[in-house]
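Title: Request for sanity check on Penicillin-binding protein 1A prediction

Description:
We are preparing a figure and want to confirm that the structure record we downloaded matches what your pipeline produces today. Could someone re-run it with the sequence below and paste the raw structure tokens into this thread? We only need the token string, no images.
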Amino acid sequence: MATTTRPKPKTVFPKVISTLWLLFLSGLAMFILYIYAVSVNFLNLFGDLPNMRTLENPKSALSSVLYSADNKELGKYFRENRTPIEYADLPENFVHALMATEDIRFEEHSGIDPEAMARVAGGILIGSSKGGGSTLTQQLAKNLFRTRGEELNNGYLNDKPGFRTLIHKTKEWIMSVKLEQSYTKQEIMIMYLNIFEFGSNAFGLQSAAKTFFGKDAKDLEVQESAVLVGLFKNPNHYSPKFNPENSKHRRNVVLSQMVKYGYMTQAEYDSLKETDIKLKYRVENQNIGLAPYFRTEASKFLLKWCRENGYDLYADGLKIYTTIDSRMQTYAEQAVEEHMKDRQKEFFAHWKGRNPWIDRQGKEIPNYLENAIKRTDRYRNLNRRFDGNQDSINYYLNKKIPMTIFTYDGEKEVQMSPLDSLKHYKHYLQTGFMAMEPQTGHIKAWVGGINYKHFKYDHVKQGARQPGSTFKPFLYTAAIENGYYPCYEVLDTQVCIPLGDGTMWCPNNADNKFSGEKFTLRNAMAKSVNSISAFLVNKLGAETLVKTAKRMGISTPLEANPSLALGVNDVTLYDMVGAYGTFVNSGTWVEPNFITRIEDKHGNVLHEFVPKTVDALSEETAYMMVHMLKAAAEPGGTAYYGLRHRNGLKNEIGGKTGTTQNYSDAWFMGITPDLVAGAWVGGDDRSIHFRTIALGQGNKLAMPIYGNFLQKVYADKTLEATRDPFPKPSTPLSVELDCSKYNNGMSVDSVQQDQFYQTPAPIDLDAF
């Protein structure tokens, strides 16, 4: 009987393996094809990817930084407050905290971490989550190239359910691999830290360290680094300012991760986990920091330069070097605050129970606030909102609302109506102060008001006011140029000058008296005798005065009227300081300047600035005017007591006080061999002022700012400010300056104007 051989059973296993392998290869091929399709945006299904040029030059908005002459950061211009740092500036504890929490295999993967992705995929399958799978490189790709923004998600499938997130992730994978191919690990990490938004308008680690802890990133302690690393999970939810408990919990999670991966011992963790977060929180903005008025005025110049040269001030990371000295700026701001706080107390007491806005007869101006508020943005917005309906406008102008107001004792939270708020602020005196190096025109200090946050108007360059007797040196300069000299004598008698309309101009002296005594020109300017100024302008002509002032840098409109001799036309403090610098700089006017150079973000010099100069005066004329100005700080001069006794200044100083009609404007201009400065004090409106010369004169309201500032400058030995005498001219003078050497003095001019004893309107009331 034949035996039957059974067929061997077929093994299924190889087929399963083969099938799985085929599926894997097919899936891999499809995945590769999918990745390729996304990378080329096949049939516009997926939206664009950043092009290679963007990859080679990834760009994020960088703050432009303003530096002082002594290399201190004055402030920034930004849309996003971002200051880049280098990898070398990272503290080691921050790098460890970041890797332990966000990407422990950062140094090992090539942009995509398979282990992390597998963990996430497994978590999804079993319905749990054990952290995200994104690497630091993927997070950089997402933020740097805005892979989830509308610009790169304009494909057909982007709006289809289930596709959007997958496409986002795919683009981030692609860009991560490209980033890893193009940059080192250190470059990738520092790029990410420089672009991340930490909240509170802090973009990048350096800005975050400054905002939350008031220090540079390189100085962060480990617990502070842990707080900032915690913000990568959610800047709002874990904000140490607004959610301190959440932040503390997240900080401890970061610290525990550092223990887990050997960057910290358990004992170190135990010593830190219960400690509170200590913040030095300050959001950077234009209202705070040194020289805010200067920074705003500088931005006007810089914006114009950027437009003309193709740069973005708020995004290109420019490095701008200024002439401001941070030490002098600090002393100027201190001098202003100390003086104005005391004068404001006097002003409040002086007007107690009354409003300070008065007309020339001393009566309160009716409807002053109602008219003033119509010039505000609030009124204009209400007017548009209610289409001019006055009842509705008035309702909101008188409605009390919560607001923060300025006082010299600090900001106060109050319930106040907009009209009452305006009334509050109109009671404050304002000021401007500027100091400049006369030889270079470099502005060293600039204070445009009493508080930038609440009073934005700049009183150095933006505002122009009547200079009073501080304008007289231009008249005396014209006299010197036309043959007069410091020892020339003129009688103190009333002078009347006919005007074109048939009337006469007959100015009074400050005390409304004429002594009939002889004054040398030097003493007349030192004591600010109006009759002598009237005599000179009558002899020289107002046109000559206009030309002299313009030649010395006064840019505001000047009318060729005799009253110009007493400073009735508006000028800026900026122009006045520049003009007085001409006297010290041997007759050469140097345009006041505040930017020395601009560099790009890499430190390449884009532009170096050279100030404009004009040979305005002869060296002899300039020196004689310095000699004349010195008399103000000598016995009998208007600045003698304040500078010599109150401030204890013993070195050679020249100066001039000024007080305008009704004491609306108080001025002081001061010169030393290496520093020219000016101060102005007054109300925002000319109708707001003191009512007496004792309180409203220039040597009471303005000069102490200058004296206090100079005192602080000389006390700082790091500044090396000279107290040397003014340098002599290079050639001998053609006239004698020692008036005692003339025989019995000089003859009084015999052709003075006839006297017209009509009652004149006072033009200038300068202080003695």
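Thanks, this matches our download. The radius of gyration is 36 Å.
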